[in-house]
Amino acid sequence: MTISAPIPAQGSASAPAAGSPAGADPFAPDGVVFQPVSSRLITARLLGGGIVSAALVIGFVIPGVLINSGFFIPAGVFAALFVWQLWLIPRQVRAMGYALTDNHLLWRHGVMFRSITVTPYGRMQFVDTSQGPLARWLGIAEVRLHTASASTDATINGLPVVEAENLRQILSRRGEERMAGL
Questions:
Q1: pLDDT given for residue 19 in this prediction
Q2: What is the average per-residue pLDDT within 6-28?
Q3: Helices (H), the chain
Q4: Could you give the strand order of the β-sheet that contains 2-3, starting from the edge strand earlier in sequence?
Q5: Which of 14, 36, 139, 174 is least buried, going by the fewest C-beta atoms within 10 A?
Q6: Could you give phi then psi for residue 158, rounded to 5 degrees?
Q7: How crowded is residue 1: how many other Cβ atoms within 10 Å of its Cβ?
Q8: What is the DSSP letter of 114?
Q9: For residue 135, what is the DSSP state?
């Protein structure tokens, strides 16, 4: 489930928690500490996007030089898009974080379009970790939490391998303790 309002206090349907201002940031709930993902995810995303952008720029520059035509305009567009990625991707990765509360996993991400997903441990069906070749080289992995509803699945990518495995074990144990989703 994705929310866009503060998490209400226990027993309260919509009132803000005591001591918190009415306009509190719903993406930073009071008393919840979010764990950031690894900054190595920035490298992984830049390498992925950079390889594609570089290939497109080169693909337009070489014919532009050989044919002496207007191929430089698309090359400039792709170069500008890559520079925009250099600015945006680090901000996106710094905005990512997860938090473990007593009954829920919270996952937040996004810069322009922010999102926070709250997944009850009892709704989890299984949790797995995965790692591609680039992630393996960088020492990061992702933890994927699956529920019966595809819309509430959460993927936390960019965690150091040891932290990803530890999180998988914690989520599996808490899911088994609650077993509401099965």
A1: 47
A2: 50
A3: 40-67, 72-95, 133-138, 161-178
A4: 2-3, 115-120, 104-109, 97-100, 35-36
A5: 14
A6: 85, 20
A7: 13
A8: -
A9: H
pLDDT at 71: 60
Q: Give the integer Cα–Cα distance in Å for 126 and 118.
A: 16
**Chain center to CA of 14:** 27
Q: Does residue 130 have a pLDDT over 90?
A: yes
pTM of the model: 0.72
Nearest to 45 by CA among 2, 112, 96: 96
- CB atoms under 10 Å from CB of 23, counted, come to 8
What does the DSSP 8-state code read for residue 157? E
Task: Give the residue among 53, 50, 10, 49 at the shortest CA–CA distance from 29.
Answer: 10
Cβ atoms 2, 115 nearer than 8 A: yes
Q: Is 154 left (phi over 0), alpha (psi -120 to 50) or beta?
A: beta
